[in-house]
Amino acid sequence: MKTYKQNETPEFEMIRAAAPEDEGARQYYFIEQARILWKQQFDGLVDSGEAAARYEGSLLSELQAEGKYGTFHIATFGCQMNARDSEKLCGILEQIGLKGVESENADLVLYNTCTVRDNANQKVYGRLGYLQTLKKKRPGMMISLCGCMMQEPSVIEKIQKSYSYVDLIFGTHNIFKLAELLCCRMMSENRMVVDIWKDTDKIVEELPVDRKYSFKSGVNIMFGCNNFCSYCIVPYVRGRERSRKPEDIVSEIKKLVADGVVEVMLLGQNVNSYGKNLEKPMTFAELLREINKIEGLERIRFMTSHPKDLSDDLIKAMRDCEKVCNHLHLPLQSGSSRILKLMNRHYDKEGYLALVDKLRAAIPDIALTTDIIVGFPGETEEDFEETMDVVRRVRYDSAFTFIYSKRTGTPAAAMEQVPEDVVKERFDRLLKEVQKISSEVCGRDLHTTQKVLVETLDDHKEGYVTGRLSNNTVVHFPGDESLIGKIVDVWLEESKGFYYMGKQVERQES
Question: Which positions fall inside the Radical SAM core domain (predicted)?
């Protein structure tokens, strides 16, 4: 579906015709055009006296002092890929001249949506009802939707029919076009602009990004998914796998390090299959080794790893690259080989356990986390007990446990569903077992000194900070804001099951 052009006005066509052909330069051109349009709108509000009522308290003076021309609010639903996309959207809006605010009472509200589970869709519909109330009180407010949920044709039809006050809709493949689409919408005489791409092979580099953290950052290494697990909508909404060039990834990370980043999270739906579609193929293990060479970078994380593609060479790279964190997220989904086959996961229980044995032989103290689905169609008590057996044998540091959510358009949606009460009872049993094991496993480093990356001030205890070990376990210890973003030595005094209490240790000069 692409309905963008039908909304173009002659004025916008003239602006678009003057845009550069290079996509990166083109979008910076539209950022400047959008900046002009927002400034004109803002100046009109100021001249008419309406701005004082719209921007309560000191916000108007703050905007004028910062040279900003309005406000925006981004709400992100879903995974770390969406969170990274939102940082890019935020960067574009900041460049246009808008100021990010916590409240949805803003000039532009953008929902970056997820559609992995149906309740995520319902949450967005509920929030849209609230936004309609806000928009009636705030003429000129713009509402925009993007992300995975927007890739479903039935969703677009519902929004056009029942939420006609939404101004702009775009998907996962063209988030780089936000400024261009805003220009189109602002010149389209209050018509809804919809621009959805079914798929793309395009990757646009060098666009603005506003990072949530100054000291760590997500880095997309690939987009899309080729796996088609029978329960998952992602390949239909994120498209086929496409990898970024290694030189672009390395260049981005070097710039991040120069800007103060010490830890990166390499992101992809299945990072283990990185590089297969490149002109000069490169494996993920080879990419890790290249990134490990970057001076100034301290830590490398990545997700998500599909067990079927986790090679022996990747395990060696994880072992040998000192900057790769001592943690691997390895989704299980089910411990039953029969269910795994129905899920189209391309490994069985025995293969998964053999992989865990290889990992622990190479990296004995590696922390393993996982995803598990309870109540997949056709799951019997015997199948569920197979999952419990894997949990007990692997002894995960933590597990994200989910009740199966039926997603229209996936093969699993047409299978026989497990009764809700049975699923709930199994889920509770699994959660109890996972938490019991996790509380035992996570204390392995008690009474040792470990390196901790300090991330935030402690939300619950004044005078304390919160950080993470290489294995991703959380640590709380006395400290102040000056430690945020630094890697410090911490003595782990007490294990609280899922986190440690500690104290900073001064490093000895050698």
Answer: 211-440
